[in-house]
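REVIEWER CHECKLIST
Item 1: Sequence provided? yes
Item 2: Single chain? yes
Item 3: Sequence as submitted:
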Amino acid sequence: MTIDFSTLFDHQPNSIHDKFLSRLFGIFSEEIVKIWASEKTLAPYVNEGRPTLRMKDKRHYTFDFTLKDKKTRKNYVSEQKCWFEYLNYKYFTLEKTDQVDYLTSSDSPNSFDRFLELGKDPSKYPVYVDGEKTDIAGIVLIWGKVSDKGRTAVKRHYNLHDLLSLEAIVNDLVSWETPEFRSWTLEKRRWCNQLFEGICSKE
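Item 4: Structure as written out by the authors:
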């Protein structure tokens, strides 16, 4: 069975439902990527930790993951964006470069601008992982859901090494029958059940 994020999060015009699920999912979505990258044989990357870009003016920018390609052993700074219901589902599925442009700043460069700059020149800024300077070969962007057209256009435009989707990552974990992911999802379901059963209990 293939999991389609549209059936989970896109129930217009019931945006209250979608907003709740999107916020809930956002709490733990990074954990899903960590579990995926910890799969020893099937995952293409391993997560080396959170990378920090250090500027000469002493400003630091920390991103979500350092993904090491298992074949080439090269490291990539990775940032995750997962906005399902935001702005009337405008960023639900990544389909064009304009959706990524929204995250950049023309007035004063923000952390995402610095992230994209590493795609053009991976050696432009020093990057540290767990306090150690780390050679970076480029960048990997992770989005909630990505169309084939969007993947091709965005990868080319921003010189991404890879463009991953959480939807595909979840489907990988399900098809791989990853025990850690199974136990993790059951635990989170149990916690949610405990919360809602607790607040509606008559005892």
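Item 5: Key structural point noted by reviewer: The helical segments are 5-9, 15-37, 86-89, 97-101, 111-120, 148-158, 166-176, 179-199.
Item 6: Recommendation: ____
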